[in-house]
Amino acid sequence: MTTQASAPPTTKSQALRSYDVADFPALTGLEEEWRFTPLKRLRGLVGADRTATGTVRHEYADLPEGVTVERIGTDDPRLGSVLTPVDRVSALAYSGTGQALLVRVAQDAVVSGPTILRAIGEGSEGLAFGHTFVEVGRFAEVIIVLEHVGSVTLADNVEVSVGDGAKLTLVTVADWADDAVQAQHLKVKLGRDARVQHVQVTLGGDLVRQYTTVEYTDRGGEAELYGVYFADSGQHLEHRQLVDHTVPDCRSYVGYRGALQGESAHTVWVGDVLIRAEATGTDTYEINRNLLLTDGGRADSVPNLEIETGEIAGAGHASATGRFDDEQLFYLMARGIPEAEARRLVVRGFFAELLNKIPVEELRDRLGEAIEARLTKAGA
After folding, report:
1. 89 by DSSP, 3-state: which?
2. Looking at the domain assignment, is residue 181 inside a domain?
3. What is the pTM of this model?
């Protein structure tokens, strides 16, 4: 007796979701979701080994009033209430994690100052798994920064629950050491009239693959997703988003910008927006721009819109990849600015709009300096 293989899902809404690694077939690299990812560089994260021998520790300074941080067990009912894994690596992280970090913001709290947490990898040998749950109570307002540094081979999930009427600014920074590998799934679930602004910055690591999804549970939700990434020689930086409009009268905006320099620098951006039949009144737009600073780099950019209703306020997407604008360089050099400095000014201007979305001045300045240091190191 033969069994006919089931057809692959034709829409994002039909994608397999499961907490069990065994429900996902072994990865071959031929899958649409993985065709840009060099699987061998994911090390053991493509297997089924759930033994965590790597270590990631967390640091944070004094917490603002209204914010608490604690460790919780995997039997806590909140875990999995926002995010159900949609791929094998995310499921591996879910089952391989022994405990999770809970960041809780009390309802009605208007938190003064940012909450800054740092995840520090302590060696790329062995696998590490992580799980973070961010719970923002009703009508709360807060800025949360999650930084990632050090050496690691990490698969992790981040669940973000934003209550009715709450406002969250979330900044995530991946500034890993050169040998680090990370595959992350971050999902945000928005309540009625809730708003999230997520700024994702990716600079370090050998291979970093970040998948961000957004789900709306009631009317009036707003999601703004911004991304800044800079791939140096040999780096693979991959960013994917799925904004799932499931209810009426919600809004989303996705804007990512990346720069590449050096031989075999590779970036991937895949932006998926799904507007379901019941999501009337949706207003959405996504755009990705990439700047090639040298020969030898490759930027893959794939915007997708899947629309199941014509009763929307607006939907669009755009993508552009190019080199330095020679006219801009000529304009600056004609005014006595050396070519290397002129190039730095162009790159600084390219990223400035999105870096200014980060509401923490010290972090914003530090990231800007890190980008300029890369340009200086390469002699750009």
Report:
1. helix
2. yes
3. 0.93
